[in-house]
Design goal:
By secondary structure, this protein is of the alpha/beta class. It folds into two domains: 8-173, Glycogen Phosphorylase B (Rossmann fold, 3-Layer(aba) Sandwich); 188-359, Glycogen Phosphorylase B (Rossmann fold, 3-Layer(aba) Sandwich). It is built from twelve helices and twelve strands. The strands form two sheets. It has a six-stranded parallel sheet with strand order 3-2-1-4-5-6, with helices on both faces. The mean pLDDT is 91.
Length: 360
């Protein structure tokens, strides 16, 4: 194992070697952000795009996004071009990567805090003048500082939120962020659809419940949902619970609600993309979710949110909700949501509904 890791480290060190180009990043005309992962990661990164563009209005900001998260950037005035990446098949990405190489990118931002081989291969192909990344612990016993492909490392302080860690990548540009808020730009049609749908529940406290996330195991089960809904209605009878669902889960959720037979619980209209869902979330009063992406969307619009998180304090601090009013219920397990307390959700919901009522 020691010999194998040594050989892997030697190979990794070799492929990351590059010539040092003298270039002041503050003179960049084109930058590329590598953000081809989940929806929540993209939401948290949106302040980076805005703060860079506001400080350097003439800079061209390109983003290499994923099929899953690129819709978050639609209508974003701080982004010039979006390219789609296929994370699991670099061969399918070669045309895009070589297209980006021809653009002669000045600076690439790579936001991973660990050494990721496919990211290194992409950077080698794109061949920017400089690469900015987050401090890396290394791989195969090789410290991140030994990887020459990275020109600037920004710190990853303990207990910091990823929002702040990723905003720190702007330090080589001498950008001091004026705001840390997230950006999502849905359109007027999406807004009107949401408002028209919710108009059937006048004067109600509107509570959105998201049942599951992109990560396997992050889920509110049927029995737990019944207990949550009945408990919320016992706390305040002037509520309407809206179940958020993807089109793929719509039929199973409808069947679930038929079995529940609770007239104060209904399914949301079909949201075909994350901006449709964002417009709805922005017009609710409280969100309950086991998924950090939905929590970040709620935080974008400062909607009160209750999140359910695995019993992992380090992970929680990195992805914590940032709404002014937020609460989190932790499960009994460090790797799953098994054993979370419905009663704790109801206690938090009671507190938040009182605050929401006082502000309405």
């Amino acid at each position: 194992m020691i010999v194998t890791n040594y050989l892997k480290a030697l190979l990794l060190s070799g492929i990351t070697k590059k010539k040092n180009i003298k270039f002041d990043v503050k003179k960049s005309s084109k930058v590329l952000m590598l953000r081809y992962d989940r929806i929540g990661d993209m939401v948290i990164t949106t302040p980076v795009f805005r703060e860079l563009k506001k400080s350097y209005p003439n800079i061209e900001i390109n983003v290499l996004a994923s099929q899953a998260n690129h819709m978050i950037l639609k209508n974003n005035p701080y982004i010039d071009s979006i390219y789609l990446n296929n994370k699991n098949n670099i061969f399918l990405d070669l045309p895009i990567l070589f297209k980006l190489r021809k653009k002669k990118i000045d600076v690439c931002f790579e936001f991973d805090h660990s050494v990721v081989r496919h990211a290194i291969i992409r950077l080698k192909i794109i061949n920017p003048k400089k690469v900015i990344s987050v401090e890396k612990t290394g791989r195969y016993g090789l410290h991140g500082s030994k990887l020459q492909i990275y020109d600037y490392y920004t710190e990853k302080p303990k207990d910091n939120h990823f929002r702040d860690i990723w905003l720190a990548t702007l330090k080589p540009f001498n950008v001091m962020p004026e705001s840390k808020r997230y950006d999502i730009f849905y359109d007027d049609l999406q807004k009107n659809i949401a408002i028209n749908f919710l108009s059937q529940y006048p004067n109600k406290i509107l509570i959105g419940i998201n049942l599951e996330g992109a990560v396997k195991g992050k889920k509110i089960h049927y029995i737990e949902l019944i207990d949550i809904c009945k408990g919320l209605h016992k706390i305040n009878r002037n509520i309407q619970i809206i179940i958020l669902s993807t089109p793929q889960k719509e039929q199973s959720v409808k069947e679930m609600l038929v079995n529940m037979r609770l007239d104060y619980v209904s399914i949301a209209y079909r949201t075909n993309n994350i901006l449709d869902a964002s417009a709805l979330i922005d017009n609710l009063h409280l969100i309950i979710t086991p998924d950090t992406a939905i929590a970040h969307i709620a935080s974008t619009f400062n909607i009160p949110v209750i999140t359910i998180h695995e019993n992992n304090d380090e992970s929680y601090k990195l992805f914590a909700p940032t709404s002014d009013l937020n609460r989190t219920v932790f499960s009994a397990n460090s790797k799953s949501l098994e054993g979370f307390s419905v009663e704790s959700i109801l206690v938090h919901a009671n507190d938040l509904m009182k605050l929401i009522k006082s502000e309405r």
